[in-house]
Amino acid sequence: MMLLRRLLMLYFSITSSALTRNIGVFGLTAFSRIPLSLSTSSAGQNFCEAKMSNSPTTAAEASDETTHTRDLQQQDTKDKDPELGQKSWRSLIEISMARSRKIRGSNYVQLATVDLEAMEPRCRTVVFRGFQKFPADHKNNSGACDDLSTVLKMCTDARSRKVQESPAGEIVWWFAKSSEQYRMRGKLLYVGGQNDGDDPELSKARKELWGNLSDPARESFFDQNVPGAPTTKTTATNDESAPAGGRDASAGKPLPPPDNFLLMLLFPHHVDYLNLKENYRQVDTFSKDESSWSFQQVNA
Ligand SMILES: Cc1cc2nc3c(=O)[nH]c(=O)nc-3n(C[C@H](O)[C@H](O)[C@H](O)COP(=O)(O)O)c2cc1C
């Protein structure tokens, strides 16, 4: 009888230790699988689910949990671009432009207008030529932001279609290197020909831009072949009579700008910024009444 009892006790002690070992192994396997699942796109969700099912039970575990959560939050903030959520579009675009400065074509932007007869959008590439500064008391200075001008400067030909289209437009600027998109909408102003005589600041800005153009660009404005008109035998090549480089043949100085050369300004009042790397989006708006910009993060 004694022998039978001992055998039974030995049997129970062996099976219970084997059971303990098995729980340990299963527990470890289940836990070690959590990090593997983090490599999928739903990693965050899997991680949260695992955390919820392993909610802390003791004060020590709870404290560990708090520390761990704080570490994760700090990691989260550390990895985020510190500029986001803190700066206006104008300060952000300054950084974007600096990051892309050396990339050829990084100043090509798309300008959309509306053909008011067809009531259809029209879009084309133009060269962004900087932000136009105005004196503090100038009427066009109202859109300044962070002490920086917000007026986008470009040029175009008075004979091109956009000039007849909507007086408002939107520019899209994609920065491929930093994966950022800016959409800037606002009023368009064309300065040139008959349209700049009464404002010395605008007239000065137009002349400055003319002087800064490359020779081929300047020469193209003297070409008598009307842009967009059907090509004929005589218009198949560039206009030979156009002065080389748009310069005076004897003195070599740039000639005065012809009437069809227009300074084109965009005065944005709404800027939509999207950062694909950070999944971050911000909308900046200009309040005319308060004469100031404000911004808000929105869902990307
Ligand atoms: C890279 C590139 C840069 C251009 N830059 C300008 C520019 O600065 N200004 C401009 O009026 N057109 C520019 N164009 C030509 C326009 O895209 C467009 O063909 C022209 O302005 C006529 O457009 P519209 O008839 O809609 O006015 C550029 C085109 C390309 C491809």
Kindly describe this structure.
There is one protein chain. The chain is α+β, with helices and mostly antiparallel strands and 300 residues long. The protein has a domain at 89-223 and 244-298: Pnp Oxidase, Chain A (Roll), CATH 2.30.110.10. Helix content is 33%, strand content 24%. It has six helices and eight strands; from the N terminus they run ααααβββββααβββ. Strands 1, 2, 3, 4, 5, 6, 7 and 8 form an eight-stranded antiparallel beta sheet that branches. A hairpin with a 4-residue loop joins strand 6 and strand 7. The longest helix is centred in the N-terminal third of the chain and has 36 residues, at 2-37. The radius of gyration is 33 Å and the shape is globular. The termini are far apart. The protein binds flavin mononucleotide.
Structure, briefly:
Residues 65-83 have a biased composition (Basic and acidic residues). Residues 231-240 have a biased composition (Polar residues). This protein is α+β, with helices and mostly antiparallel strands and 300 residues long.
* CATH architecture grouping of the domain at 89-223 and 244-298: Roll
The CATH superfamily of the domain at 89-223 and 244-298 is Electron Transport, Fmn-binding Protein, Chain A
Can you write the helix and strand succession as a string? Answer: HHHHEEEEEHHEEE
- The helical percent reads 25-40%
Biggest beta sheet summary: 8 strands, antiparallel
Poorly predicted runs of 5 or more residues: 12-62
Mean pLDDT: 79
The secondary-structure class comes to alpha+beta
Shape: globular
Distance separating the two termini? 77 Å
Please work out how many helical segments DSSP would assign. 6
What is the top-level CATH class of the domain at 89-223 and 244-298? Mainly Beta
Q: What Rg is obtained from the alpha carbons, in whole angstroms?
A: 33 Å
Count of DSSP strands: 8
Bound molecules: flavin mononucleotide
Strand content: 15-25%
